[in-house]
Design a protein that fits this description.
Low-confidence stretches: 194-233
CATH superfamily: MFS general substrate transporter like domains
Number of helices: 17
Radius of gyration: 21 Å
Helix content: over 70%
Number of domains: 1
Length: 418
């Protein structure tokens, strides 16, 4: 990336954040394509796997509730560094799991520390992107997708040649741990704060008022001081909390579409077509390749055609890809369906994260709402898909029951809030 007017410290920070995005993608892609093996090793079915994934995701809600205060107290640099180390270490627990209880501990640790890392790296990325003449959020998320491609291809290949889960995941955990420690020193040392809402107190001391840290980040003292009533204050609070609810809703819908195309792609080929571990992983890889291409090209597409047109085309491509992946009775066309779904979904989360990072108030509040909605979807989706897939439905049909309504709600919510 060119400096585009950035200072040397900002360039180092951008490089460090970019590496962290890549590491996060590679980390999760290392075990997701091998979920069928993990399921079989601990001797459970799809319904039980869905419940375990949901229990692990529930821990992410705790992280979402605490992340705003964690950012405020420790700063994004310290939070990203420490949580990144813990996140990489958690992968080794998944690799060592031979019982459902151990797997849940690993998944829960991954979920908690992922929320902290996710929020911190997106805040730093958004701040740096705002200082450049050309935005970089899509490309940063593109690096996350590139990490998933690299991690997914490696996982599929290693599974194909018989490398055990334990050896694979312990090695990945160790390598990524070293990378996170090395690059952490280059992160931004000072966080940006939204002064427009947490401004000086009336006494001129610069201290924020007692309502400045409430969800939504809106200080209500100016309303009351100006003669506004408590009713007016309540209306203001609701008005500024409204976008947080939208962030939660669209975050949940977007993750439902993305999750069913990642966690369940390999299982779709394994259970519905009898594909081998090496072939099944290609469905996940196809989805991540589509996301990577879409994200690296997203900024230029938005610049040329406008964000709304790109979003409209993207959701149509997403729906077509998901329907093909769910219902076409040919495993190679299913792989192409996942590729199309990845292309369509590609620019959704970068835009949502950037908008949430810029939400007025305490840093991390908007992202906390977005990740909170996402974590609810992470909780509900695995249970729903796992339960449906254990019935007479195919895995493909089970995923479609979740993804198609999620796409419809996403369209309505984003249109009404535009």
């Amino acid at each position: 990336m060119s400096d585009d007017g950035l200072s040397p410290s900002d360039r180092r920070a951008l490089a460090s954040v970019a590496v962290q995005f890549f590491v996060n993608g590679a980390l999760f892609a290392s075990f997701v394509p091998r979920l069928p093996e993990i399921r079989d090793r601990i001797e459970i079915g799809n319904d039980a796997l869905g419940r375990l994934l949901a229990i692990g995701a529930l821990s992410g809600l705790v992280g979402s509730a605490l992340v705003g205060r964690a950012v405020e107290r420790f700063g994004t640099r310290n939070l990203l560094w420490v949580a990144g180390v813990c996140l990489c270490s958690s992968l080794s627990i998944v690799g060592l799991a031979t019982a459902p209880a151990v797997l849940v501990i690993g998944l829960a640790s991954l979920a908690i520390f992922d929320v902290l890392v996710d929020t911190a790296m997106n805040l730093q990325g958004s701040w740096i992107s705002g200082r450049r003449r050309a935005p970089v959020m899509n490309r940063l998320h593109g690096l996350w997708s590139l990490g998933t491609v690299v991690g997914g291809v490696a996982a599929s290949q290693l599974a194909g040649v018989g490398v055990t889960l334990r050896v694979h995941l312990l090695a990945v955990s160790a390598i990524l741990l070293v990378v996170v420690i090395v690059v952490g020193a280059g992160l931004l040392r000072t966080d940006e704060h939204a002064s427009l809402v947490d401004g000086p107190a009336a006494d001129g001391t610069g201290a924020a008022g007692p309502m400045a840290g409430t969800p939504g980040g809106i200080g209500l003292e100016p309303i009351i001081a100006a003669g506004g009533s408590l009713v007016g204050a309540d209306r203001a609070r609701r008005r500024f909390r409204g976008p947080l609810l939208v962030f939660a809703l669209v975050g949940g819908c977007s993750i439902a579409m993305e999750l069913t195309s990642s966690d369940w792609a390999a299982i779709r080929l394994t259970d519905d077509f009898g594909a081998s571990a090496g072939i099944a992983g290609l469905a996940y890889v196809a989805f991540t390749v589509g996301m990577t291409i879409g994200r690296f090209g997203g900024d230029s597409m938005i610049f040329r055609f406008g964000h709304q047109r790109v979003a409209d085309i993207g959701i149509v491509v997403t729906i077509v890809g998901l329907v093909v992946a769910a219902f076409v009775p040919n495993q190679w066309i299913v792989v192409l369906g996942y590729l199309a779904a990845g292309l369509g979904i590609a620019t959704q989360f970068p835009k949502l994260y950037d908008d949430a990072a810029k939400h007025p108030g305490r840093p991390g509040v908007g992202l906390g709402a977005l990740t909170g909605g996402s974590r609810v979807a992470l909780l509900v989706t695995p249970i729903a898909v796992g339960t449906l897939a254990t019935s007479r439905l195919s895995v493909g049909a089970a995923t479609a029951i979740l993804t198609v309504p999620a796409a419809a709600v996403f369209v309505v919510a984003t249109r009404r809030s535009a």
